[in-house]
Amino acid sequence: MKLANRVLGNKLFTVLMKATFYGHFVAGEDQIKIIPTLERLRSFDALPQYQVDKTFADRRYKVNSARTYFYLNEATCERNMEVFIKCLEAVAGATFGTGITAIKLTALGRPQLLLQLSEVISRARQYFEELVGGDGNVLNYHKTINDLEKYYVSLGIDNKEVKNFLKNVTSDKEGILHLFPWTGIVNDEFQLSDTFRVPDPKTGQMRRLISQIPPKEEEMFRNMIRRLNTIVKTAEELDVRIMVDAEQTYFQPAISRITLEMMRKYNKDKAIVFNTYQCYLREAFREVTTDLEQAKRQNFYFGAKLVRGAYMEQERARAEALGYPDPINPNFDATTESYHKTLTECLRRIKILKDCGEDAKKIGIMVASHNEDTVRYAIQKMKEIGISPEDKVICFGQLLGMCDYITFPLGQSGYSAYKYIPYGPVQEVLPYLSRRAQENKGVLKKIQKEKRLLLAEIFRRMRTGQLFYKPKGNYVPI
């Protein structure tokens, strides 16, 4: 593409791209020009881990398939927020309340703040595991605040600071939910370094799980949350849903925690905010079940997109370089098993809601996969469990220009089917197109079926004189 651009010049290169590669994978240059594509598609379809390391400072390293944002300054983050809001407005006008906009949290603030918050979450988990002598999330143990109080007293710890700590522990009748008042994340009075303090079992003194954060960085964190709040409020007003993308594992605990707090704040009557779970991670099943349990116990609507994952090579290289366990499943089959197990658990919980006469839409799942077997598995499980497309709790998603032979039959069979629609000027979406080129080189080696179908359609169009034919259907979004 770079060579063609130099040889042809910008103008001719742009014309060529629009007629070929760009035209296949990108919907248009701006939110106005994508409307015909949206309408046409709609007519058819339904610890060391958390340390900064210079080697991996460029987060594009060994990452081909995912968009990466780099923090320049607060003004850039403000502009990114405005771009996301324009995306919401573009979707709102063309999708009748069924649209979704994908956003990346690292575009809205300094990523190092997410790194620090992720480290706090990891340390908090370790702290609780040491207290109970097991592993896993605090929710799993059904320990009460009284249990914690007795534990500290048995160690001879019974001071005012510990009592204040216990007052702020979040719990319900089933036990402790969180050691910290996470609700503060989405509110202005939240101070990172002051909040994340726990009683030291050896000294009885309160100790920080995060180093003192300078006021300027506290302000940056507050700005990040303000931007996210602005985006989600706009989505709520425009009746569009927000899907927060998953990112690298060293950011993900913080991203998931912030997203869950946004769910708790905004998903009171329906699922507006969705989180993304990468099933190639060894911890994927446990993370999803923990978050489902939080949604159930704190009574908010849970939305999730299930994907395989986008950072495998980088994650493995970083884990080896920094000396922590590889977070990725050992092979493709293990990832498929993880995906299917996680999806089955979500479907099982939806079935329980239906059987109890509760709103089944309290759990909404997008099966975002280009894998035909995974899509077939999801449909089969839906049938076995008794979940129909009309329940509007499961939808499917693929990228524009990829696996149409999966997306369109799904929509025409009554399932909710989505296309991920990128847009922007040719020169600005070249990085996206290069990722699709690399991704499809591998995909098309494996998917003989799609190549065969595309070739058959080309011959059909040549025979019937419909070389530039653009089909249109009468699908109604569900």
From TrEMBL:
Protein name in the entry: Proline dehydrogenase
UniProt domain Proline dehydrogenase: residue ranges: 192-447
GO molecular function annotation: FAD binding; proline dehydrogenase activity
InterPro entries: FAD-linked_oxidoreductase-like, Proline_DH_dom, Proline_oxidase
GO cellular component: mitochondrion
Keyword Isomerase: no
Gene3D superfamilies tied to this protein: 3.20.20.220
Any Pfam family hit: Pro_dh
Catalytic activity reported: L-proline + a quinone = (S)-1-pyrroline-5-carboxylate + a quinol + H(+)
Catalytic class of the enzyme: oxidoreductase
Origin species: Glossina pallidipes (Tsetse fly)
EC number: 1.5.5.2
One of the GO biological process terms: L-proline catabolic process to L-glutamate
Obligatory cofactor(s): FAD
Keywords, comma-separated and alphabetical: FAD, Flavoprotein, Oxidoreductase, Proline metabolism
Family: Belongs to the proline oxidase family.
Pathway the protein acts in: Amino-acid degradation; L-proline degradation into L-glutamate; L-glutamate from L-proline: step 1/2
Biological function: Converts proline to delta-1-pyrroline-5-carboxylate.
